[in-house]
Amino acid sequence: MTSPGIPRPILVALGKEFRRRGMQNHAEHLASYYRGNQGHRPPYGWDDGHVLTWLKRLRIPPYEFALPALAPASDCPHCGPQSVFGGRRTLCTFPGGAEFICGRCEMTWLELERGPLDVRRLVGV
Ligand SMILES: [Zn+2]
Asked: Is 86 a domain residue?
């Protein structure tokens, strides 16, 4: 058995989060990816990089702060309103949120349906 690039407890946490959000296909692909690390063929497109992307999107520790989480319809944190010239694009939507990319500087961020409590506390909303 070859060791996966991402530790198993982190993969287990991601699998649970997929199921909690009703993302059954993703949970099954993740399981296939894990078996793929043990000599089976992983599902197309599911490599360490893709799994890492989902760990960041769903804020699974230790990746919970890898992407900034902003209020809905935010401008790019780097470009501000200037980002309208490049346009913000939706990279991916998923149950509970979406990931966006700035067309100007290519920074990515999350917008979550229930905003991050830690940030709300900081700004006193
Ligand atoms: Zn930007």
From this structure: yes
Question: Ligand 1 mean position to 121 CA, how many Å?
Answer: 25
Same domain assignment for residues 36 and 74: no
pLDDT score for 12: 96
pTM over 0.85: no
The domain total for the chain is: 2
Q: Is 63 among the domain residues?
A: no
Distance between Cα 92 and ligand 1 center (Å): 17
Place of tokens 């890492």: 52
Range of 16's domain? 8-57
Yes or no: say if 97 and 110 are a contact pair by the CB < 8 Å rule: yes
Mean pLDDT of successive 10-residue stretches along the chain, which has 125 residues: 72 97 95 78 84 97 96 88 73 95 92 61 41
Ion ligand 1: protein residues whose beta carbon lies under 5 Å: 76, 78-79, 83, 102, 104-105, 107
